[in-house]
Amino acid sequence: MPAARQRLTPLPHSSASLQISSDRQGQALPAVSLPVLQTQIRACTRCEDAGHIPEARPLTTGDPDARFMVIGQAPSRTAHVTNTFYRGPAGERLRAWFVMAGFTEADFGTRVYLAAITKCFPGRLPGSSKDRLPSKAEQALCRPWLDQEIALLQPRVVILFGSLAIQTFLSKDPLSGLVGRAFEKDDRLYLPLPHSSGASTWLNDAGNRALLAQGIERLREARAA
Ligand code: SF4
After folding, report:
1. Whose CA is nearest to atom 2 of ligand 1?
2. pLDDT band at residue 2, thresholds of 50, 70 and 90?
3. Which of 38, 83, 164, 182 could form a disulfide bond with 17, CB atoms 3.0-4.6 angstroms apart?
């Protein structure tokens, strides 16, 4: 079925917010609780079985009562080794942005659910220290897990961390037109943030860093709402 076109309409209450039509409404709830689903996810070996990765070690962290959900690209090598989500250099920067928005370290895993487009470390690009982007095949294998997490959690606010998550859930438009704004879709708020990896040059631009500051402010507003 072809994806519905996204329609962007300014919301009346905030010039920084947009509304998007959706093609993913009406999704049926999984027949298990979120903790049971998380146990199923942690036992998943689909990508290892298919030969995409040498070792599946899925990460999913979060309380069923969390109302904020982070969706990133995939666990980092640090996350893979330590078995803790968003604890590499990029993850620590993301956590710092949350603290700037008023969250505490204790909120991660309690108020803030941690997820990603794929839940296993994809490995490095050949001959590079950069992480490999999960392939379309890996994304497709993992997507049902993420969809079930969202259906069970029903987060009020989804923070899309990096281009892959933003393109998957929001728009393929340039980041400079998205970061710093809030988008309403399926009765929840989507906040796009750039990836904080040192491999990304987007934040080298002063104008883009100003957009990030606006994005953190949108997160502060969502926390206070
Ligand atoms: S990335 Fe997702 S689908 Fe692939 S093995 Fe890990 S949990 Fe399973």
Report:
1. 142
2. very low
3. 182
Q: Which atom of ligand 1 is nearest to the CA of 118?
A: 1
- What CATH number does the domain containing 63 carry? 3.40.470.10
Q: Is residue 149 one of the residues assigned to a domain? A: yes
* Residue 17: inside a domain: no
Going from the Cα of 46 to the center of ligand 1, the distance in angstroms, rounded, reads: 6
Pocket test of ligand 1: the residue of 80, 83, 142, 147 to mutate, having most ligand atoms within 8 Å of its CB, is 142
pTM for the structure as a whole: 0.87
What digits encode the pLDDT tens for the residues 121-152?
998 888 887 889 999 999 999 999 999 999 99
Burial 68-100 (b: 16+ CB within 10 A, else e): bbbbbbbbbebbbeeebbbbbebbeebbebbee
Surface-to-core class of residue 199, CB atoms within 10 Å of its CB (0-12 exposed, 13-18 middle, 19+ buried)? exposed
Task: Report yes or no on 14 lying in a domain.
Answer: no
Residue 16 lies inside a defined structural domain of this protein: no
pLDDT tens per residue across span 79-106: 999 999 998 888 999 999 999 999 999 9
Q: Domain range holding 108?
A: 28-224
How many domains, in total, are found in the chain? 1
CA of 141 to the centre of ligand 1 (A): 7
